[in-house]
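Deliverable D4.2, example record:
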Amino acid sequence: MEAKWGTVTGVLVHEWIEKRGGAERVLDGMVESFDDIDIYCLWNDDPMRYGSRQIYETVLARTPLRHRKVLALPAALVTWRHLPAIQKYDWALVSSHSFAHHARFSKNPDLKKLVYVHTPARYIWAPEADARGRSLAARTAGPMLRTLDRQRAKEIYSAAANSKFVAQRIERSWGIDASTIYPPVDVSRIQAKSDWSASLTGPDADLLGSLPSDFILGASRFVEYKKLETVIDIAVSMGVAAVIAGSGPDEMRLRAHAKERGALAIFILKPSDSLLYALYQQALLYVFPALEDFGIMPVEAMAAGALVLANEVGGTSETVEDGRTGALANFCSKASITEAVQRALSGQASLSRSRAMKFSDAVFRSSLSSWVASKTGI
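Output generated by the structure prediction step:
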């Protein structure tokens, strides 16, 4: 879609560009949807991501504060308010999970801001879901930041949340309504092969072939809030192996937990995409206990045909269909988990695959384009 029709000109704004991340997948979809539009960010760590397309970094990119997100916050709040536009813009499409929605351009401070909200900054609005919010600095600065953030949110012309769960947080935090546009998942790529194991070679093929015939899968970053120890506990209760795939600082704790429980836990560090998709397809269940704003990996698992056991709270309650594509559980209750495992195992792979298509890249781009067009008239 062209973003410049007549005198109506748009601009994309993103927090910072990393090489991997769910927010960057959303930005990819935005860039594909609007192929003639300027892009601004605090700094860009993946300069070849969009080929020769110009990405405008802020002055922070040329300072020692680059990458130091916590230390850079005071300067970032000021920087967002004084973006030096190369031309006059009529509207901005902002991808925000921190404070990018504060953005204002010097040439046109009153442009329409359409904000795609991954979440209001969790460390000030939902500290129970973000360990950074429990730090002394966050608790001290929290009241001031919340007041400022709520004030800046009043400038938003229209907001879209990445889940109904986040839309509720937006209403509680900022006092504004938001529609819901689910983020893009690479469903078509995952479903391009009916059997990913057949495409594996070398160490990946050997590793997959060495796994027990029955296992449940936990795959994510190895960090505390992902609660991967719960996957190990469920495997023990089912009498099967647990395959834990990913990487992160929680690895040693998870290994110790598996040893303490006497579990057969197999750790696969930094699996390739092909191996991960094959694991989705061969697992009895993909278990995702984390409370997430959306949760991309459960949708990936469904795209591969996996049955998914996920948290009944958060974004996963909007993607996993209980009793059809898996089940939803209260992971604080052993009884709930036991019952949910049985419901999950009664699901159907075909239903998982068809459900995942509702969260594809194509659906995201269509919904995004319709939303922007309805608010800007392009």
